Amino acid sequence: DQQVKQNSPSLSVQEGRISILNCDYTNSMFDYFLWYKKYPAEGPTFLISISSIKDKNEDGRFTVFLNKSAKHLSLHIVPSQPGDSAVYFCAASADYGQNFVFGPGTRLSVLP
Amino acid sequence: NAGVTQTPKFRVLKTGQSMTLLCAQDMNHEYMYWYRQDPGMGLRLIHYSVGEGTTAKGEVPDGYNVSRLKKQNFLLGLESAAPSQTSVYFCASSHPGQAYEQYFGPGTRLTVT
Predict the structure, then answer these.
(1) Which of A44, A99, A104 minimises the CB distance to B48?
(2) Rounded CA gap, B44 and B12, in Å?
């Protein structure tokens, strides 16, 4: 049973609009969450993180929201750009980084 | 500064053959990780190391062995390859104080026939 779920395999958004990528988790011991972006034939690159003591973290066009009671987090990208087209992975840790569990990923396509 | 490098980039093995994947990092990171990525399953942790000479099992360790003899290198071995080990393998490293930010290599695509 997957502990980290990304129920939307793919998402298409028009350039300039908001992209919202969702992630759900089942393990209440998770205390740190990250988002990674992956382009084809490359390794994932770190995007943004959030600790369980916060409910929001912002970095430029990227904002991550955490709802601990619902065991849900989301990544907002505003405005979306064609270069944002990639696979986005949500990951969670219960031990501040020694061991991460990744979701299956959501492929985002930003249409010009 | 090359970051995290992986050797080789591609490999085709026959069932039963053995091979070693090499990961090297030049960022002086303490932590290193090996993941595999399969379609629809994200990245799954195989083994990891929190320092030179130490290793630990991840989520899917069976069929793999690892060694961390030098801080900058993390080796992943397949003693007797099986078709189920066909996958893309990623190595990553991180610093303990910033363990949430893992730096990934470009990946090794392995096919076992």
Answers:
(1) A99
(2) 21
CA distance A112 to chain B (A): 27
Q: How far apart are CA A109 and CA A67, in angstroms?
A: 26
Give phi and psi for B85, each to the nearest 5: -95, 5
Beta bridge partners of B36: B44, B89
- Does residue B98 carry a pLDDT above 70? no
Q: Give residue for tokens 């849900």.
A: A72
Q: Which of A44, A45, A100 sits opposite B45 (nearest CB)?
A: A100
List, for residues A25-74, the tens digit of each pLDDT value: 999 999 999 999 999 989 999 999 999 999 999 999 999 999 999 999 99
Contacts of A40 in chain B (CB under 8 A): none
Return d(Cα A66, Cα A94) in angstroms, integer.
15
Q: A70: burial class by Cβ within 10 Å (0-12, 13-18, 19+)?
A: exposed
Of B21, B6, B59, which Cα lies nearest the Cα of A42? B6
pLDDT in tens, A77-94: 999 999 999 999 999 998
Q: Name every chain A residue with its beta carbon within 8 A of the beta carbon of B87.
A: none
